[in-house]
Amino acid sequence: QVQLVESGGGLVQPGGSLRLSCAASGISFSLYNMGWYRQAPGKLREFVAGMTSGGYINYIDSVKGRFTISRDNAKNTVYLQINSLKPEDTAVYYCKANGPIGTLRRDDYWGQGTQVTVSS
Description:
With 120 residues, the protein is an all-beta fold. 0% of the residues lie in helices and 52% in strands. The protein has strands spanning 3-7, 10-12, 18-25, 33-39, 46-51, 57-59, 67-72, 77-82, 91-99, 107-110, 114-118.
């Protein structure tokens, strides 16, 4: 059974920082591309940051320089360091696993999400 469990969200003031974690189980983690997405109230879920199995990283423009994605394959965990938080970063943040790489069929798995609220 595949599980992705996010943690680390919370209420933070503008300019603050958070570190989100997503712990995976039930998959060969190192063979999966990992991503962070977010969904603000009334908006569609959007891609935020991704890190492939091979270590390639990309971000949406609005978070470049503020967000950092990383992964620890030994701990089956992907992280999202969020700095200089803005009110518009308020959303539920989800992690997604896509893989395994090198196969014809890849599956997507999602976590349950963690709430990030940026407010003074």
